[in-house]
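User: ok so my PI wants both of these folded by tonight, can you help

Assistant: No problem, let's get them done. Here's the first:
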Amino acid sequence: MSRSAELAALIRDRAGQDAPDIGLILGSGLGHLAAKVEGVAIPYSDLPGFPHAGVSGHVPQLVIGQLEGARVAVFGGRSHYYESGRADAMRLPLEVLAALGCRRLILTNAAGSLRPDIPPGALMLLSDHIAFAGTNPLIGEVTDARFVPMTDAHDVDMRSALHAAAEAEGIELPEGVYCWFSGPSFETPAEIRAARTLGADAVGMSTVPEIILSRFLGLRCAAISVITNMGAGLSDEAISHDHTKAMAPLGAAKLEAVLRRFLRG
């Protein structure tokens, strides 16, 4: 039995046999949603091989249960490329999600905006992404499955349903292209100008590796950024991780409303 199958069996023993309808990965400062789930919380430390999510603002536990009538699997934290130098750090958790029978995933993150019409406190639905970090979580995969097509990486039907949910809640949900930088240092003003030239609308340090891994594993996925700041050189605000955590709640209530409506179908 593979490690992901073993962990899936352990999770089923503690949280029940039913497959999750959808998985959620929560970004910096957005972990409060996991507390709203009626179910079982399993610390990552109880799941051998899971990351310890060593970034403040993340809660390293998997919560499985009911939210708005849907069975969800909520990852309260993620491991970032900059923590270990491994772009595939979230491969095992996503393999376990697939082994549990889940087929859809929504990812969230805190991001910096490159557009004045998407200010701090706003949400942005990812229409596409740029892997500016220059690495890939499938490096080292030996099978031909590593050649994953990414044309439909951000699922059209899921995006349409998220737009409908946002409209029903009266919340603006513009689409944009997310540019992945490796971190942990923030981007320079020159890098922000380069990203804008390439067609990016927001920048961040996560999500793209998980989208690539999700498509490799056959998961349909969509992603939403909570905008916490403008990119370097685009405003006078001081950018820091503390600032990110402080600003995330401005968009978190909107994100929760959209996700709850989406889950109600």
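One down. Here's the second:
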Amino acid sequence: MAELVIARNPDPDSSLRYLLWLPVGEGLLFRTSDTWPRTKALYCHPADLGEWPAGDDLDVVERVALRSCARRGAAIDVVVDRGRENRSQIVYTRGRGRDMVFWQSPRTRKQARPQVRTPTARAPGVDELEIVVDAHERYPYRFASQQTRTARRALPAGDYGVLLDDTLVASVERKSLPDLVSSIANGRLRFALGELAALPRAAVVVEDRWSQVFAQRHVRPARVADSLAELQVRWPGVPIVFAETRPLAEEWTYRFLAAALAWAHDEQAIGLRMAGAASELAAGDAPQPSTAQVRAWARSAGIDVPDRGRLRPDVWARFREAHASTE
């Protein structure tokens, strides 16, 4: 019966630690980084069959019987004889100007290409959003699919922000997953969140999936997860959002900043109305004349008023007019 065989790469300097052998034609050999595409598609480097170790140098990690292994167009469908993790594909593609091969499972294929299309509809309440990009941002978002314009300047916190009356009212810190992990390890993320928390609204957006935190090799995944949880508890007003891909992170940043600016405009308008109402209330708090005072003034002005009881509305009106003209 045909088998899929995975052996350790005898080259200690290679980052691709395993050799994958498939019985297609005279045999296909690839160098790869893991024994199965569980959490992400695995890059496979085609190798010469002569690299397959012989004799005592052969260290087989896994040998699995195959139900089928057939080439279909630019892919090789691989089905192994076991209950779980039994279907995968070797896909030939082209990227970065060269031919590339990836080993993917149905799960990693769905995660790598989320079936979404970012919307082009403008954010509500904003005709054209001006986004300030931090001067230190090396490869900034362009927001090309949205009604925006960008300006470069140094920001006190975050990588992208919006201003209201030259005041930074919201900011977003962008992170790739490797940058997120390194900033947790060296403590930079803790200081960044402290600066973001001083703004009215702020967030951190990560260009990857939360599940990839647990696929880290050079740092304990539990340490990263625990640090993220502790930072969110300490600064609950600065959410850390995992947006799967860079385009989705860019779209989330646009929507967040547009909503934050619209909210800041509303807060400003409400504040002005409240200030006006307070001044009116303060003016209305001036002491009001008593009925006896108005009665005495009316008699001095030659107006006929009763000795007791309420005064007519026109008497009060004439009193206010007379005293308003003297103020």
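The two ends are 107 Å apart (CA to CA). Residues 184 and 208 are 16 Å apart (CA to CA). Good luck tonight!
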